[in-house]
Amino acid sequence: KALLFSFCSELQICCRLLFRGAVNGQMKLFVSEGNPHCLKVLAALELTGVKCDVQYVNHEEKVVQFLNHPALPALLLPAGQQLFSANAICRLVLSDPEAVSMADIVLWGALHPILSDSSFTLGEHNSVKTWFDRVAAVHSCQSAVQKVLQGKGLQAMKSYMQRQPAPQNSQCRDAQPCNNNPAEERQHFVSEEECEAAALAWNKGLSSCPAPDRQHPILPQEGKRNVLVTSALPYVNNVPHLGNIIGCVLSADVFSRYGRLRGWNMLFVCGTDEYGTATENKAREEGLTPQQICDKYHAVHSSIYSWFQIDFDFFGRTTTEKQTEIAQNIFWRLHKHGYLVEDTVEQLRCENCQRFLADRFVEGTCPHCSYPEARGDQCDKCGRLINAVELRDPQCKVCRQTPVIRSSKHLFLDLPKLESQLEQWLEKSTSTGDWTTNAKQITHSWIRDGLKPRCITRDLHWGTPVPHPDFKEKVFYVWFDAPIGYLSITANYTSEWERWWKNPLQVELYNFMAKDNVPFHSVVFPCSLLGAQDNYTLVNHLVATEYLNYEDTKFSKSRGTGVFGDMAKDTGIPSDVWRFYLLYVRPEGQDSAFSWADMAMKNNSELLNNLGNFINRAGMFVTKFFEGCVPVMELQREDKELLAVVGWELQQYIQLMDKVKIRDALKHILNISRHGNQYIQVNQPWKKIKGEESERLRAGTVTGVAVNIACLLSVMLLPYMPLVSQIIRDQLNAPQSCVYTMLQGSGTFVCSLSAGHRIGTVSPLFQKLEAEQIEALKKRFGGHTPSTPAAAPAAAIKVAAVEGVDSEKAEQLVKAVAEQGDKVRALKAQKAEKDVIAAEVSKLLELKTQLALAEGKNLEPTSKKGKKK
Amino acid sequence: MNWENMALRELSSLEKYLGLKKPNKYSTQGDKKVPVLQNNQGPPLVGLITIACHLVKEAKRSNLLGESAEGRAVVQQWLEYRVTRLDGCTKEDSKTILKELNIHLQDNVYLAGNHFTLADTLMYYGIHPLIVDLTVQEKEQYLNVARWFDHIQHIPSLRHHLPPVVVLRNTIYTSRHH
């Protein structure tokens, strides 16, 4: 495809060049008076007698269109190329070596403004002056000077110089160049004072403050930092993929765990978003009621998140009584304050199915490009947005009947009327809170483009009913309804939910999401709450991730590309390692990609060789050389220096985590274990232990410091890898209070395992991921259309379906059967509810029947994976 | 060899791409660590571009410097652009540069027209840190640059010291918002 593309572009350019060449067969030079860069060019032309049409223009003339700042001199070549660099022009003109070389002309021209000034003395470099004068005496140069400076001397350059952007002093540039080598990381230099301060802090030891307990229901407390964390509600009938997980629940989980360590009063709520057309349709597909679908998939979500150790305080759902109650209350308040307007909307209705068709349930011919399979909201071929009623020959996707256009009355939230209130609030929230850059940008662009009233009702059944008598048959549109889920889920957690949600003075609200969700959380939902005028808690910190790609493409359920939440556990890779890698590549500030090879590399290099190796060595030394008891430590300058460096890394970690820079903070944990490994390597306690008394004391100090660093690492790791973190503390037999001591304030590294402390049994923390294992996983999750170019997957699948390519279908089915089989086994192993298992089993049987049909009845499924168990 | 210095890494990658068997030994001069190649036959060669051009000639791949006099001038112009505009540019400049290149590459397959040249190689090395920092949306905004960049990074054995950057083939920001 790339080849074809470049071929086409080349062809196009050839044609264009031929055309231009025919029009003007000569070079054309643009110069401006008083522009010193023109000197050398004109001198070169004069010198060689190259024929060229010279045109004088003013400094502002943009001859080379694509350059931001006008660039003169500029030479247009017969072939259409443009030269905008004086040196390049000279190179072209002076392509034959002459007595006076190109280097002479170019340097003479460049130095002319300085050296032609008679007051400028070169001191002892007078051979430079001699050379300059010799070149300047060349007739061509004199003539160039005359043309450019018009006999006015250096004064003639004034008007040109004034138009130049402020000079960039290459010697002392204030602004940091942005294409610096990223590998050059800031090294922390440790001063004497810092060393002493670090040693002092170290000696303080653990504080005796009791571990805060987490007693439900958690409610805001006076005098505490009360933090409410929400993660975007996952849509119930999609199994979340890794991108969804890192974007919302995992990021929010890390931050909540961190906040608890900091001693903040945290509440972390989330739940499944269950209403809407997609659910209705899924229910029809599977022959269940929407409620049954929701029950079934809510369980799937729950089990995925619990496998990933997402520690919600409450994981609820939107299809509850509380949802109806709160949504209707907000609705009535908006109504009362006059923020709702009525309008009539034209919609497609399928008389056969007895319902209005949501955009994605209509197909027809694109009104723009006549593509026959355009969807109701967008055409896959030309990419343009479509209004469903504009489709030619529309069809109901479910029954293939032709729908009719009906008008239906709807309610709109009057966003323009709320705009000034919204802007006022945004101004404050974005300037005082930690909003990610993308969140601010997206919000800003919505406001800049102007807000329009947004329809909040839908002609559906599966939703929160609109309580207004004139809109009886309707439900709330999901975007209005879903964010209210945060409130209703909290209400299902505690009857005192209003202490969180109507308490902006005491509560700080963090919303975690992927960036596609930003406008609903920064514009639309705040407008609902502002309009309701009930002292609601509005978002203070909006944390949005960019997108996570899979290898070099997107995650796709339909193509089977990528790892989905329910499959991660079947890979045999521990949940903590998944968490670590996803957080390591968290799309923070820029998009990133999940890559198997990279995951294996990070596991083997960072977890196994760096972090795991250090912690294991530290523990093993205590066990082997000191009978399992932490030895006496006598700190030397070198040890104190390490304490200071580790303390500095800890403080960086805290500063970053406080700003929800989760990925960046992780790097500092790994830095600490790198410092630790180096420290052990330099001091060689395994050799010193065999030496004389003073050497053995030294081995003890190094071992003691190292094992204390291991303990600190376990604390810093807790938000990222909760299980590994606990295992480390178990192995070290560390007191629980270390967890809460070291992350207080700006962070202090204290000695938490003092001399004489007995540690537990030490064993390796991580396992190597082998290349073959990773290759197999990569194959398994690579999707079933690897040879199809990524740009046209939708079309390719449709073609296959039309022609009924059975072998491909069979291949897909083999995979689906194997996966479904795994799922059923997993559910049984977890002792899931009977009807959940039954539903999955019937799905499995159905898939097997389809497979048999696709392969011809006598064939047995050839799935290797199916036979394995 | 000092691997912290990006210019030296570039030269080393270029040597490999050109198939030069024996790696050269470079030193640097000045605060800005300008690369220097001590030449047996003549005076030392100073500066990334000068050395790069020398390597190309040594590998007998002069076509990479442009086929005609005009072509050679254009290649030199982009090499100059690389060191004078791109190197050490600020965040602000980088947006301008991307904008300029995006327009230029609208009807040029490569920087110097229809043929791959040394200008593409060195501009690719130089612009890599800017591209790494772009979001998906920005890459779509500078679509022609992204297309060119992706094309160059997939040229066999060119990338060497740089990690690949993901460039999506299908645009995902079809409209401002939905």
From TrEMBL, chain A:
Enzyme class name: ligase
One annotated Gene Ontology cellular component of this protein: cytosol
Source superkingdom: Eukaryota
Swiss-Prot/TrEMBL GO biological process terms: methionyl-tRNA aminoacylation
WHEP-TRS domain residues: 809-865
Keyword field: Aminoacyl-tRNA synthetase, ATP-binding, Cytoplasm, Ligase, Nucleotide-binding, Protein biosynthesis
Alphabetical list of CDD domains matching this protein: Anticodon_Ia_Met (cd07957), GST_N_family (cd00570), MetRS_core (cd00814), MetRS_RNA (cd00939)
Organism in which the protein naturally occurs: Oryzias sinensis (Chinese medaka)
Record protein name field: Methionine--tRNA ligase, cytoplasmic
Reactions that this protein is recorded to catalyse: tRNA(Met) + L-methionine + ATP = L-methionyl-tRNA(Met) + AMP + diphosphate
From TrEMBL, chain B:
GO cellular component: aminoacyl-tRNA synthetase multienzyme complex; cytoplasm; nucleus
SUPFAM superfamilies: GST C-terminal domain-like (SSF47616)
Pfam families documented for this protein: Arc1p_N_like
CDD domains reported for this sequence: GST_C_AIMP3
InterPro entries: AIMP3/p18_C, Arc1-like_N, EEF1E1, Glutathione-S-Trfase_C-like, Glutathione-S-Trfase_C_sf
GO biological process: positive regulation of DNA damage response, signal transduction by p53 class mediator
GST C-terminal domain location: 54-178
PANTHER family from the UniProt entry: EUKARYOTIC TRANSLATION ELONGATION FACTOR 1 EPSILON-1
Protein name as catalogued: Eukaryotic translation elongation factor 1 epsilon 1
Species of origin: Oryzias sinensis (Chinese medaka)
